[in-house]
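Re: your question from the hallway

Yes, I did run it. Sequences:
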Amino acid sequence: KAGVTQTPRYLIKTRGQQVTLSCSPISGHRSVSWYQQTPGQGLQFLFEYFSETQRNKGNFPGRFSGRQFSNSRSEMNVSTLELGDSALYLCASRISGSYNEQFFGPGTRLTVL
Amino acid sequence: QKEVEQNSGPLSVPEGAIASLNCTYSDRGSQSFFWYRQYSGKSPELIMSIYSNGDKEDGRFTAQLNKASQYVSLLIRDSQPSDSATYLCAVNRDSSASKIIFGSGTRLSIRP
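Structure:
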């Protein structure tokens, strides 16, 4: 079974631009979560989508948004990029519930210049 | 107090010894617990999950959970240089499933 895939793997943007990242979960997984990982802050939860609905949200500004499609694929958008948005963005999927294990994709490395 | 706390390390263990990694969490209602291994520049890889008090063994790995004391640990027996990585403890806080909180990770170094 194929794992979680993320595109693109690497991205370079300049301040003020916007970016869209894509995530395809493991087949049969309906929950997709997004995380930001930086050396200083560690792994921080952005939001989770389940059945096209945002189920939970972390403490990030409204510039960070996401959505999920009917096939469970998810996109994350960051508008008006800031230097501090440079990070590894990770997507993770699981079947649905709290007892289900969550698996990560390879991540998208975003650099904001 | 952080929701999930881990000693940042680095923890240095000789090859062949037992590495012991610890994690404490603040929410008594937490339901499920996970250990991830992350190599430098890579994404986290799930290595163990545990849901009830006691020990759970999988190969060289043993996860231990004590809900009364609010801690979870990971033991790695017969440590190998390939075990050198950062180990992340993750806790699912609520039964509605949505929010998993990660600790900041413990860097483990296995010295030959």
